[in-house]
Amino acid sequence: MSTGQNKQLIRAFIDRVINQGELDAAGDYMAEDVVELEPFPGQGPGLAGVQEVLRGMRAGFPDMHWTVEEQIAEGDKVLTRFTWTGTHEAAFFGVPATRRRVSVGGMVIDRIEGGRVQDTRIQMDVFGLMQQLTGA
Questions:
Q1: How far does the chain reach from its first CA to its final CA, in angstroms?
Q2: Sign of CA dihedral 33, 34, 35, 41
Q3: What pTM was estimated for this model as a whole?
Q4: Separation CA 27–CA 32 (nearest Å)
Q5: Residues near 83 by beta carbon (within 8 Å), at least 6 away in sequence
Q6: What is the pLDDT along the chain (136 residues), one digit of tens a residue?
C-alpha cells in the first residue's frame, strides 16, 4: 500500500470504529495479532485487547469523537496526531462519572502490513485528562 492508502486506512478506522462505535469492524483495519507497543493498564493481547480498550473508552465517554489534526506517513508507518472529545458519563480509570466535557490530545504511530495495522503505539495526554475529570 502507498503512504496515502495507509493514511486513509487509519482515517477510515477512526471514523468507522472509534467515531461511529462499530467496534466489531476493527478487524477490517487491524490484524488479529496486532501488537499494542504501549498497552493500557490491564489491556489484553491482539485485536480483542484493542477492542476491549475501545469499549471501555466508549462506556466512559459514549459521545467520544476523534478528530485527526494531522498525519505523517513514511514507508509502512503512519503517525496521526489527534484530539478526542467526549462527556464523562461512566467510571473511567477509577473516576466516577463527572458529566464533564473533556478534550484530550495525543499521537499514535501505526505500522501497516498486508493492508492491516500490525503494531501500534499510542501516546495520550492522560495527565491532562485526569485533571479535567477531577478538576485538579
A1: 45
A2: negative
A3: 0.94
A4: 7
A5: 66, 67, 69, 103, 104, 105, 106
A6: 899 999 999 999 999 999 999 999 999 999 999 999 999 989 999 999 999 999 999 999 999 999 999 999 999 999 999 999 999 999 998 899 999 999 999 999 999 999 999 999 999 999 999 999 998 7
CB distance 61 to 89 below 8 Å: yes
- Four-CA torsion 125, 36, 44, 91, nearest 10 degrees: 20
Question: How would you class 13 by CB atoms within 10 Å of its CB: exposed for 0-12, middle for 13-18, buried for 19 or more?
Answer: buried
Q: Which amino acid is at 43?
A: Q
H helix intervals, 1-136 = 3-13, 46-60, 126-134
Task: Domain 3-134: give its CATH code.
Answer: 3.10.450.50
Instruction: Report the 10 Å Cβ neighbour count for 52.
Output: 15
Nearest partner of 106 among 136, 66, 72, judged by Cα: 66
CA 82 from chain centre, in angstroms, equals: 9
